[in-house]
Design brief:
Elements: H1 6-20, H2 24-35, E1 42-44, H3 46-52, H4 64-67, E2 69-71, E3 76-77, H5 78-83, H6 96-112, H7 124-134, H8 149-165
Antiparallel strand pairs: 1-2, 2-3
Length: about 170
């Protein structure tokens, strides 16, 4: 796969920000923290398949290293992409067009699924980011705590940095 230029990637953040109603600076901040903007980032999580294979019986014949991995700029988990309707091979998730759209779609879904009681202790953005990184189950906990709060702080710091440095989306605005 040919890598896209930073300008082309930025245009994708603009396009999918508008399509999925998620601020582009937030999308880019997630990509910065998740992969350092590396389009070919890959992270295999060996215990994932052991713990979750029963939830995805339709993927039983696939390679666990494909299914139990995160891909690309937004580090989208294969199973998350599958839940969102993606039916391709894991290597297709390196494609920034697919990857950024799935990341934006997931964040849109997480924001849409928030329940008011969930954010009595946290900002909605913190909860969605924690769920993006660590799943929705038990995040936030019954006491309102986020099990990956440090991650949310990193993304929000990157968000502030990106927001201060970048201007608009150009003609796509």
């Amino acid at each position: 796969m040919e890598l896209l230029s930073p300008e082309a990637v930025n245009k994708l953040f603009c396009i999918y920000s508008k399509k999925w109603n998620v601020e582009r600076h937030l999308l880019k901040a997630v990509a910065i923290v998740e992969s350092s903007m590396n389009q070919m980032a890959y992270r295999f999580e060996p215990l994932f398949w052991k713990n979750y294979k029963d939830k995805f019986p339709e993927l039983a014949d696939r390679d666990p290293e494909e299914v139990s991995a995160s891909y690309g700029l937004m580090q989208v988990m294969f199973t998350t992409a599958w839940r969102l309707g993606f039916r391709g091979a894991g290597v297709e998730l390196y494609n920034p067009v697919i990857n950024i759209e799935l990341g934006a779609r997931l964040l849109n879904q997480l924001f849409g699924n928030l329940v008011y009681k969930d954010y009595y202790k946290n900002w909605p953005q913190e909860i969605c980011l924690a769920q993006y990184n660590g799943g929705s189950s038990g995040n936030p906990g019954l006491d309102g705590s986020l099990r990956n709060y440090a991650y949310t702080r990193k993304v929000l710091a990157a968000y502030r940095d990106v927001r201060m440095k970048e201007v608009g989306c150009g003609k796509t605005e």
